[in-house]
Design a protein that fits this description.
- The radius of gyration is 16 Å and the shape is globular.
- Strand 5 and strand 6 form a beta hairpin.
- The chain is built from 5 helices and 8 strands; from the N terminus they run E-E-E-H-H-H-E-E-E-H-E-E-H.
- The chain has one domain.
- By secondary structure, the protein is α+β, with helices and mostly antiparallel strands.
- Helix 4 packs across helix 5.
């Protein structure tokens, strides 16, 4: 189910739950107060969105036609997908609870890891395992808490234009530890509970 999503004048994103609650997005909660995106970040987000469209087509068995700015990324990612992803459970799925919501990229069956909540990230420079956990773990942990299916692991797949992707797979306990530390504090701050 997709929820209605909107952005306020300050750039904060919200979802409207089936119960009629207006809850902030996970990424809005994690964004530092007063932060703004740069032109380079916006260009990267557009490229990432186009790559996500390629992934949705791929998962559905439809032809993939990457745009010029995402073709090199797709060429590096597609061999990993063929070798590692053995089934798709969900794509671009909205998840929510009574205090926040978000849209996870995918839940797929990954060879050797089972059911994996997977987040696709494009990057121009290398991202190491600990850096990916610190940067994106709280976001993925928040999604995992709202996901109502079974999960065996969580992965960040960092896709590059010139090299094969880095695939960082984390146990649910690793993700929950950083989620408790960073997301829970941001959530309390958002709701004025600190």
């Amino acid at each position: 189910m997709h929820l209605t999503r909107y952005t306020d004048a300050d750039g904060a994103r919200y979802y409207i739950t089936p119960e009629g609650l207006h809850v902030p997005s996970v990424t809005t909660i994690l964004r530092p107060p007063g932060s703004h995106t740069s032109e380079a970040m916006d260009a990267g987000a557009r490229r990432g969105s186009r790559l996500h469209t390629c992934l949705e087509h791929y998962a559905a068995g439809r032809p993939v036609s990457p745009s010029l700015d995402s073709a090199d990324y797709w060429e590096r990612l597609e061999p990993w997908l063929r070798a590692s992803v053995v089934g798709w459970i969900a794509q671009e799925m909205t998840v929510w609870c009574d205090r926040y919501a978000g849209t996870l990229d995918a839940v797929c069956r990954v060879r050797g890891h089972g059911r994996v909540l997977t987040d696709w990230k494009t990057s121009c420079k290398p991202v190491r395992r600990k850096g990916a956990l610190t940067k994106w773990g709280p976001q993925l942990g928040a999604y995992a808490r709202c996901y109502d299916g079974d999960l065996d692991a969580i992965a960040v797949v960092v896709i590059y234009a010139t090299d094969p992707p880095d695939v960082w797979v984390y146990s649910l306990d690793e993700i929950e530890a950083v989620t408790c530390e960073r997301f829970d504090a941001a959530l309390r701050r958002w709701y004025g509970e600190l």
